[in-house]
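Hi F.,

I've been meaning to write this up properly since the lab meeting, where we talked about keeping a consistent format for the predictions we share between groups. The idea is simple: the sequence comes first, exactly as it goes in, then the structure tokens exactly as they come out, then a line or two of notes. No screenshots and no reformatting. I'm using this chain as the first example so we have something concrete to point to.
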Amino acid sequence: MAGGQFDAEFNTVASADLLTEFGESITYTPDGESAISTTAAIDRHQFRTEQEVDGEGYNITAAIVISTAAIAVPAVNDAVTFDSESWIVSEVEPADGTGLATLTVYRHVASETGKSDYRIQRR
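Output, unedited:
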């Protein structure tokens, strides 16, 4: 068996095993198309942007890893739902032969000004 074929088969099997072991249910909705239920590994090391977006809140980001067998062509501006929250794809790192693509997703958290200009977070 040639190295290329071995690598391809190993990556396919390893990808499926990783998502089976570490994956969580998500809903992936390509822009303008129907939703797809699949499994993804979710990196919850989220962060708040250093500054507000147009003074109306901030974005939280996360990274998710999906199988390209389930989502063949992930794209920027597609929607992802997990933990009952909606996220938007902002970056796609292609599979590069692994069968797994890494997506950076974000969601916006709005801020409101209350009494005495106190900031209130809405989720």
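Notes:
The chain has one domain: 3-122.
The mean pLDDT is 80.

If this format works for you, I'll send the rest the same way.

G.
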